[in-house]
# Entry
Amino acid sequence: MKINTQTVKEVTAVEITGDIDANTAPKVTETVLPLVQPGSKILMNMSGVPYMSSAGLRSLLSLYRQTTAKDGKIVLVGLSEEILDTMSVTGFLDFFTTCDTVESGLAALI
# Structure
């Protein structure tokens, strides 16, 4: 799994490539959590994530809670159909703003 971060305007864009499972979910949390600052805007580009386990979902929920606790926003971009279905069934989609493209994700944050 690879994680790249960059700043686009006032948005921190995080691009994840590879599976997010019990082995890699802690790395996602360790990498993204320090980026969460008061009022931060985080775009998580997950178009390169073919699979996410329950550990990945827990990691995302933790990031969501930390971000909203600091009056920030987090947007998920490029979720696969399988991950979208899983998040819908488990109720996770109720927490997140999701977009199909990076451009629409940036527009939702700005």
About this structure: Residues 2-109 form a domain with the Transcription Regulator spoIIAA fold (CATH 3.30.750.24).
